[in-house]
Amino acid sequence: MTLQRQPVPVLGVDATPLDVDGLTAVLDGFLADGRTRTVVGHNLHSVTLFHSEPQFRKFYENSDVVLLDGAPVLWLWGRGREKSGGDTRPVMDYRLGSTDWIPALGQLDGLHRIAVVGAGASANAKAVAKLQAIVPGATVSGMPGEDWNPELEEKAAAWLAELQPQLVLIGLGMPLQEEVLWRRLPSLPPAVYCAVGGAIEQIAGIQKLAPRWLGRLGLEWAWRLLLHPRRVAYRVFGEPWVLLALLLRRRLRGRD
Known about the structure:
The chain is α/β, with parallel strands linked by helices. It has 12 helices and 8 strands. The mean pLDDT is 89.
Protein backbone atom coordinates (compact mmCIF):
# COMPACT_ATOMS: atom_id res chain seq x y z
CA MET A 1 0.00 0.00 0.00
CA THR A 2 1.49 3.32 -1.12
CA LEU A 3 0.37 6.50 0.63
CA GLN A 4 0.88 9.89 -0.91
CA ARG A 5 2.85 12.40 1.12
CA GLN A 6 2.09 16.10 0.91
CA PRO A 7 4.51 18.95 1.66
CA VAL A 8 4.14 21.20 4.67
CA PRO A 9 5.10 24.69 3.46
CA VAL A 10 7.86 26.58 5.27
CA LEU A 11 8.82 23.62 7.47
CA GLY A 12 10.44 21.54 4.74
CA VAL A 13 8.79 18.25 5.72
CA ASP A 14 6.16 15.95 4.21
CA ALA A 15 3.17 14.38 5.94
CA THR A 16 0.36 11.92 5.26
CA PRO A 17 -2.93 13.82 5.73
CA LEU A 18 -5.46 11.38 7.15
CA ASP A 19 -8.58 11.69 9.28
CA VAL A 20 -9.54 9.01 11.79
CA ASP A 21 -11.54 6.97 9.27
CA GLY A 22 -8.74 7.24 6.73
CA LEU A 23 -6.15 6.03 9.21
CA THR A 24 -8.26 3.10 10.38
CA ALA A 25 -8.66 2.04 6.74
CA VAL A 26 -4.90 2.25 6.27
CA LEU A 27 -4.26 0.25 9.45
CA ASP A 28 -6.74 -2.38 8.27
CA GLY A 29 -4.67 -2.72 5.12
CA PHE A 30 -1.43 -2.93 7.08
CA LEU A 31 -2.83 -5.67 9.31
CA ALA A 32 -4.02 -7.62 6.27
CA ASP A 33 -0.65 -7.63 4.54
CA GLY A 34 1.24 -8.53 7.74
CA ARG A 35 4.41 -6.59 6.95
CA THR A 36 6.43 -4.32 9.23
CA ARG A 37 5.05 -0.77 9.13
CA THR A 38 5.69 2.41 11.08
CA VAL A 39 3.33 5.23 12.04
CA VAL A 40 4.70 8.51 13.38
CA GLY A 41 3.48 12.10 13.68
CA HIS A 42 4.86 15.57 13.03
CA ASN A 43 4.81 18.43 15.50
CA LEU A 44 7.33 21.26 15.90
CA HIS A 45 9.55 19.08 18.10
CA SER A 46 9.76 16.34 15.47
CA VAL A 47 10.35 18.94 12.73
CA THR A 48 13.28 20.34 14.73
CA LEU A 49 14.73 16.85 15.16
CA PHE A 50 14.10 16.11 11.47
CA HIS A 51 16.33 19.04 10.48
CA SER A 52 18.99 18.52 13.16
CA GLU A 53 19.37 14.74 13.55
CA PRO A 54 20.23 12.75 10.37
CA GLN A 55 19.15 9.41 11.88
CA PHE A 56 15.81 10.83 12.99
CA ARG A 57 15.31 12.30 9.51
CA LYS A 58 15.97 8.95 7.85
CA PHE A 59 13.52 7.22 10.15
CA TYR A 60 10.76 9.69 9.28
CA GLU A 61 11.55 9.59 5.58
CA ASN A 62 11.22 5.81 5.64
CA SER A 63 8.08 5.67 7.79
CA ASP A 64 4.87 4.51 6.16
CA VAL A 65 2.58 7.12 7.74
CA VAL A 66 3.54 10.57 9.06
CA LEU A 67 0.47 12.09 10.68
CA LEU A 68 -0.22 15.80 11.16
CA ASP A 69 -0.03 16.15 14.92
CA GLY A 70 0.97 19.64 16.13
CA ALA A 71 -1.30 22.61 15.39
CA PRO A 72 1.35 24.79 13.66
CA VAL A 73 2.26 21.91 11.34
CA LEU A 74 -1.41 21.34 10.57
CA TRP A 75 -2.10 25.02 9.90
CA LEU A 76 0.85 25.40 7.53
CA TRP A 77 -0.19 22.28 5.64
CA GLY A 78 -3.73 23.68 5.49
CA ARG A 79 -2.50 26.95 3.96
CA GLY A 80 -0.69 24.98 1.30
CA ARG A 81 -3.82 22.94 0.64
CA GLU A 82 -5.90 26.12 0.20
CA LYS A 83 -3.50 27.42 -2.44
CA SER A 84 -3.57 24.13 -4.38
CA GLY A 85 -7.36 23.75 -4.19
CA GLY A 86 -9.16 20.41 -4.01
CA ASP A 87 -10.11 19.04 -0.60
CA THR A 88 -12.40 21.43 1.27
CA ARG A 89 -12.96 19.45 4.47
CA PRO A 90 -12.10 21.23 7.74
CA VAL A 91 -8.36 21.25 8.35
CA MET A 92 -8.87 20.11 11.96
CA ASP A 93 -10.22 16.77 10.67
CA TYR A 94 -6.63 15.93 9.77
CA ARG A 95 -5.06 16.65 13.12
CA LEU A 96 -4.30 13.23 14.53
CA GLY A 97 -2.48 12.97 17.79
CA SER A 98 -2.22 9.45 19.17
CA THR A 99 -5.13 9.94 21.56
CA ASP A 100 -7.33 10.95 18.59
CA TRP A 101 -7.01 7.64 16.78
CA ILE A 102 -6.25 5.05 19.49
CA PRO A 103 -9.91 5.04 20.67
CA ALA A 104 -10.86 3.96 17.12
CA LEU A 105 -8.75 0.78 17.20
CA GLY A 106 -11.89 -1.22 17.98
CA GLN A 107 -13.01 -0.56 14.40
CA LEU A 108 -10.13 -2.57 12.93
CA ASP A 109 -10.82 -5.98 11.45
CA GLY A 110 -8.53 -8.82 12.45
CA LEU A 111 -6.70 -7.04 15.28
CA HIS A 112 -6.00 -9.77 17.84
CA ARG A 113 -2.66 -8.97 19.51
CA ILE A 114 -1.55 -5.56 20.80
CA ALA A 115 1.64 -4.67 22.67
CA VAL A 116 2.08 -1.52 24.73
CA VAL A 117 5.67 -0.51 25.47
CA GLY A 118 6.46 2.47 27.66
CA ALA A 119 5.52 4.60 30.71
CA GLY A 120 5.74 3.44 34.32
CA ALA A 121 4.31 0.15 35.56
CA SER A 122 1.06 1.65 36.87
CA ALA A 123 0.37 3.77 33.80
CA ASN A 124 1.22 0.89 31.47
CA ALA A 125 -1.14 -1.48 33.28
CA LYS A 126 -3.98 1.07 33.23
CA ALA A 127 -3.42 1.74 29.52
CA VAL A 128 -3.48 -2.00 28.81
CA ALA A 129 -6.81 -2.29 30.64
CA LYS A 130 -8.23 0.67 28.72
CA LEU A 131 -7.13 -0.77 25.39
CA GLN A 132 -8.61 -4.13 26.35
CA ALA A 133 -11.95 -2.34 26.73
CA ILE A 134 -11.48 -0.52 23.42
CA VAL A 135 -10.60 -3.72 21.55
CA PRO A 136 -12.35 -6.46 23.57
CA GLY A 137 -11.58 -9.15 21.03
CA ALA A 138 -7.81 -8.63 21.26
CA THR A 139 -5.15 -9.74 23.69
CA VAL A 140 -3.39 -6.64 25.01
CA SER A 141 0.01 -7.04 26.70
CA GLY A 142 2.20 -4.40 28.24
CA MET A 143 5.82 -3.74 29.18
CA PRO A 144 6.76 -0.60 31.16
CA GLY A 145 9.51 1.56 29.71
CA GLU A 146 10.51 3.71 32.65
CA ASP A 147 14.31 4.10 33.08
CA TRP A 148 14.92 2.66 29.62
CA ASN A 149 18.40 1.19 29.20
CA PRO A 150 20.17 -1.34 26.94
CA GLU A 151 19.23 -4.27 29.19
CA LEU A 152 15.56 -3.34 29.15
CA GLU A 153 15.73 -2.85 25.39
CA GLU A 154 17.06 -6.38 24.95
CA LYS A 155 14.30 -7.68 27.21
CA ALA A 156 11.64 -5.79 25.24
CA ALA A 157 12.95 -7.12 21.93
CA ALA A 158 12.84 -10.71 23.23
CA TRP A 159 9.35 -10.11 24.67
CA LEU A 160 8.04 -8.84 21.34
CA ALA A 161 9.63 -11.75 19.49
CA GLU A 162 7.78 -14.18 21.76
CA LEU A 163 4.52 -12.21 21.74
CA GLN A 164 4.35 -11.70 17.96
CA PRO A 165 1.97 -8.72 18.20
CA GLN A 166 0.20 -7.22 15.21
CA LEU A 167 0.19 -3.68 16.58
CA VAL A 168 2.77 -2.11 18.89
CA LEU A 169 2.26 1.20 20.67
CA ILE A 170 5.68 2.44 21.78
CA GLY A 171 5.69 5.47 24.06
CA LEU A 172 9.19 6.24 25.27
CA GLY A 173 9.16 9.92 24.42
CA MET A 174 10.70 11.60 21.40
CA PRO A 175 13.36 10.95 20.16
CA LEU A 176 14.10 7.82 22.24
CA GLN A 177 11.20 5.81 20.80
CA GLU A 178 12.30 6.66 17.25
CA GLU A 179 15.92 5.78 18.04
CA VAL A 180 14.84 2.41 19.44
CA LEU A 181 12.72 1.63 16.39
CA TRP A 182 15.50 2.70 14.02
CA ARG A 183 17.95 0.38 15.79
CA ARG A 184 15.67 -2.56 16.33
CA LEU A 185 13.14 -2.61 13.53
CA PRO A 186 15.05 -4.98 11.20
CA SER A 187 15.18 -7.64 13.93
CA LEU A 188 11.73 -7.13 15.44
CA PRO A 189 8.76 -9.33 14.42
CA PRO A 190 6.50 -7.97 11.64
CA ALA A 191 3.91 -5.60 13.09
CA VAL A 192 2.58 -2.06 12.82
CA TYR A 193 4.82 -0.01 15.11
CA CYS A 194 3.31 3.30 16.25
CA ALA A 195 5.38 5.94 18.04
CA VAL A 196 2.89 7.45 20.49
CA GLY A 197 4.96 9.58 22.89
CA GLY A 198 3.07 10.37 26.09
CA ALA A 199 -0.20 8.83 24.90
CA ILE A 200 0.21 5.79 27.15
CA GLU A 201 -0.02 7.97 30.26
CA GLN A 202 -2.87 9.93 28.71
CA ILE A 203 -4.86 6.78 27.89
CA ALA A 204 -4.19 5.55 31.41
CA GLY A 205 -5.61 8.77 32.84
CA ILE A 206 -2.30 9.62 34.55
CA GLN A 207 -1.69 12.64 32.33
CA LYS A 208 -4.69 14.89 31.73
CA LEU A 209 -5.65 15.70 28.17
CA ALA A 210 -6.21 19.31 27.18
CA PRO A 211 -9.85 20.23 26.54
CA ARG A 212 -10.69 19.72 22.86
CA TRP A 213 -11.57 23.40 22.37
CA LEU A 214 -8.02 24.34 23.38
CA GLY A 215 -6.67 21.89 20.81
CA ARG A 216 -8.82 23.44 18.09
CA LEU A 217 -7.39 26.85 18.98
CA GLY A 218 -3.86 25.47 18.88
CA LEU A 219 -3.33 26.14 22.59
CA GLU A 220 -2.54 22.67 23.88
CA TRP A 221 0.99 23.93 24.58
CA ALA A 222 -0.42 26.30 27.21
CA TRP A 223 -2.20 23.40 28.94
CA ARG A 224 0.95 21.29 28.96
CA LEU A 225 3.03 24.23 30.15
CA LEU A 226 0.61 24.74 33.04
CA LEU A 227 0.73 21.07 34.09
CA HIS A 228 4.42 20.37 33.41
CA PRO A 229 6.30 23.70 33.31
CA ARG A 230 9.81 22.28 33.75
CA ARG A 231 9.32 19.62 31.09
CA VAL A 232 7.58 21.80 28.51
CA ALA A 233 9.14 25.27 28.93
CA TYR A 234 12.10 24.69 26.62
CA ARG A 235 9.91 23.27 23.83
CA VAL A 236 7.57 26.26 24.06
CA PHE A 237 10.04 29.10 24.51
CA GLY A 238 13.40 27.81 23.32
CA GLU A 239 13.01 25.17 20.63
CA PRO A 240 11.04 27.34 18.14
CA TRP A 241 14.12 29.60 17.87
CA VAL A 242 16.30 26.56 17.22
CA LEU A 243 13.91 25.46 14.49
CA LEU A 244 13.87 28.96 12.98
CA ALA A 245 17.67 28.94 12.81
CA LEU A 246 17.66 25.49 11.17
CA LEU A 247 15.11 26.59 8.57
CA LEU A 248 17.02 29.78 7.79
CA ARG A 249 20.23 27.82 7.37
CA ARG A 250 18.41 25.42 5.09
CA ARG A 251 17.03 28.28 3.00
CA LEU A 252 20.47 29.89 2.71
CA ARG A 253 21.81 26.61 1.40
CA GLY A 254 19.22 26.78 -1.37
CA ARG A 255 16.84 24.06 -0.21
CA ASP A 256 13.07 24.62 -0.21
